[in-house]
Amino acid sequence: MTSIIETGPQHAAAADRGEEDRALKTRQRGMWALGDYSAVATEIIAGFGPILVQAAGIASGQLVLDVAAGSGNIALPAARTGARVTASDLTPELLEVGRARAEADGISLAWETGDAEALPYADAQFDVVTSCVGAMFAPHHQPTAEELVRVCKPGGTIALIAWTPAGFIGQMFATMKPYAPPPPPGAQPPPLWGDEAHVRSLLGDRVEILRTETAGLPVSHYRSGAEFRDYFKANYGPTIAAYRGIAGDPDKVAALDEALAELGDRFGAGTGSMEWEYLLLVARRR
Is residue 34 one of the residues assigned to a domain? Predict the structure, then answer.
């Protein structure tokens, strides 16, 4: 009887899904280790740190978990408030960069490898749970949302920032989509986390939504769309991965080069007034 259960089609299908999921997470870890995401975090989107720390009301003594923390764009300024912060991310290489920066600045916090879809923490462990353009890249949105809620204490705060579908980064992913391999079954597009209705549906009645705001992050780093493209080709894991997938096809490489440069120019690269649209959402766990 036991052997029949273990070798039956449902068990085999579940095992296959488990293997597929592990392979997917391995690819994700490798993708975010490409290039230098910490450069993007410190040179381009550092402004998100104070925005999310203030929105979440992070204060001294609170237990804070930053999910998909990368190299510490939120975790470091959160720790500077005196909060007891844990930075969790799927990619150890990013955590090591953050750890080195924290040590250099004399900031104390924990850096721990963890999957946003299966966080290695107890129920109701943290006063505040944050994620800034991080958890949105976990492929399965509902399990990710459930984990964010699960590890937050009742009455605690969940504060999120995500790129919107219509904004610059959302459109960058739309531009790269025809050149990238198809997503695995069940995976959802990351910029959906920037759609308020989608996030409300994910979190459901387990939380009370306190604040939502769509805004633009000012970006003045690039003098042209081509400069933006080249910067992301060198530093941003998903862009590097897209180009690696078409490296053997010069026509596709040229077409993607042109499309990304045009996108940057269309959104104002080089004008000094470029803005990258994002959704800020703050909720209280019931």
Answer: yes
Domain contains 11: no
- Rounded Cα distance, 218 and 45, in Å: 9
Closest CA to 180 of 242, 248, 257: 242
- Quick: pLDDT tens for 204-229: 999 999 999 999 999 999 999 999 99
Residue 195, domain CATH: 3.40.50.150
Provide the token pair at 154: 């009742």
Q: For the segment 71-80, what is each residue's pLDDT rounded down to a tens digit?
A: 999 999 999 9
d(CA 34, CA 91): 10
**What is the CB neighbour count within 10 angstroms for residue 223?**
12
Which residues in 149-180 are b (16+ Cβ under 10 Å) and which e?
A: bbbbeeebbbbbbbbbbebbbbbbbebbeebb
Domain contains 193: yes
State pLDDT tens for residues 230-271: 999 999 999 999 999 999 999 999 999 999 999 999 999 989
φ/ψ bin of 11: left (φ > 0), alpha (ψ from -120 to 50), beta (otherwise): alpha
- Residue 62 lies in domain: 16-220+274-285
Assess contact for 276 and 219: CB atoms under 8 A: yes
Note whether residue 6 is domain-resident.
no
Asked if residue 46 has pLDDT above 80, the reply is yes
Number of domains in the chain: 1
Cβ atoms 106, 46 nearer than 8 A: no
pTM for the whole thing? 0.93
